[in-house]
Amino acid sequence: MDLSKYTSFKELPKSYWIASTENTNYPAFSQDMKIDVVIIGGGLVGIQCAYFLKKEGLKVALLEANRIGSGTTGYTTAKITSQHGLIYSKIKNQMGEELARQYAEANESAIGEYKKIAEENNIECDYIPQSSFIYTQDDSYIQKISDEVDAASRLGIKASYVEEIPFPIPIKAAIRFDNQAQFHPLKYITALAKTIPDNDCHIFEESRAITIDEEGSNYIITTEQGSKIIAKIVIIASHYPFYNKPGMYYARIYQERSYVLAVKAKEKYPGGMYINAEDPTRSLRHQPHLNGELILVGGEHHKTGQGKDTTKHYEALVDFAKDIFTIDDILFRWSTQDCMTVDGIPYVGYFNPNTPNLYIATGFQKWGMTNSMVSAMLIRDLIVKGKSPWQDVYNPSRKTILASAKDFVVQNLNVAEQLIDGKLSPVPDDVDVKAGEGRIVMVDGKRAGAYKNEKGNLHLVNTTCTHMGCELNWNSAERTWDCPCHGSRFTYDGKIIEGPATKHLSFSNDVNTFKKLLQEDF
Ligand code: FES
Description:
- 26% of the residues lie in helices and 30% in strands.
- By secondary structure, it is α+β, with helices and mostly antiparallel strands.
- The strands form four sheets. Strands 3, 4, 5, 6, 11, 12, 13, 14 and 15 form a nine-stranded mixed beta sheet that branches. Strands 1, 2, 7, 8, 9, 10, 16 and 17 form an eight-stranded mixed beta sheet that branches.
- Bound molecules: FE2/S2 (inorganic) cluster (FES).
């Protein structure tokens, strides 16, 4: 497929949300301090937690490893919806109707809370009310669609069964939820972040937290630069948690990537937000852009570091888009990853049952808009009131996780396989990669990653993941080194893009210098 005729395929992937928002410039954390609450992570969970807790009179410091919204928040499709696949039948069957009700109420409340916060703070964030649809093209899903309409309706959601959607896609059935919405997540988060610094509340950027230690009834958080914050309460809102003391999160979360195109089409978008029920995933929404609109075409999925030739995932979305629209151009494309839990429900609440002042929010299953708002409201209520009406369904230590023991075993077997395969697969014994190519090579008998840019400059990294030692794989579409075990990602010059890793890779442009670095690493 000749993709080079499309604007975005001439350069590396770039998120529309990031490209259309001003850069933030909060200071780095440099002076030790003591504070009520430390929030680790400046995405939607972290900023919204900071917003709510500041309103409750608490002194808050937020540490972001890069820039506000530069992680998963900056690469989403940004649908504010309580329609998370066929979730309500699933929770009802797996955990019972009461917990399904908690999930429904939490996510419906989150939709309204976005509108309220945007209005109260005069935030211009392209918020547009929409209906949301799940459709199927597969006869075997018709009954499931019908069951989901019943389950959602019983829980108070305005859901209906429909047989048509306004696209030339021959569907068998669909669910429609009303009173949903879409927005521009970075316009929202960067405006909300501005309300936080003052009255002893702080945002720090380029301040990666690397350790959390207990000292009496306090926590000490140390950043990469060596500065420390002492706090009574810590909220880990860093997507995949890097802290792993009793919680075993690395054994019960995995990361999955997905892809988005921002298409300029000849046809006008008919409104609504769409996703299909079956595989491969396909998702649609639109976004106002200059004097026209972009159509966001999303989908595909694979475990991070296991996507083979990742460009093929963008190609599959182009094929899908071509069947529905006349494509003028593809102005942006990007990919992202989200944390998946073994039972399909996020982990939000106490990090473990014995840590009343340590909180976690993760595992949003690619439904991070409402789940991030739910997390912020839930954690605020646990801190301020000691309880939340939704804490049971989101409880990270819920007993029902045991019912997912099969998924737990499958995911951990996959990690073990990746660990062994990565160490044993044969590797060519040269660093003579072509311009534009990245691959594993042998340097002094040790595995290494080599990437040569278009100008012919060589970039060598140690491909042993700094988290738990799995071997990284090359991601050709994004030009990154991705870990197939827990999903850490690194730039071609070894910098962390996504955790749980907290340490960069050894890197050099020069083979002899790199050999010395490798000797120090092993
Ligand atoms: Fe865990 Fe790489 S992310 S070993």
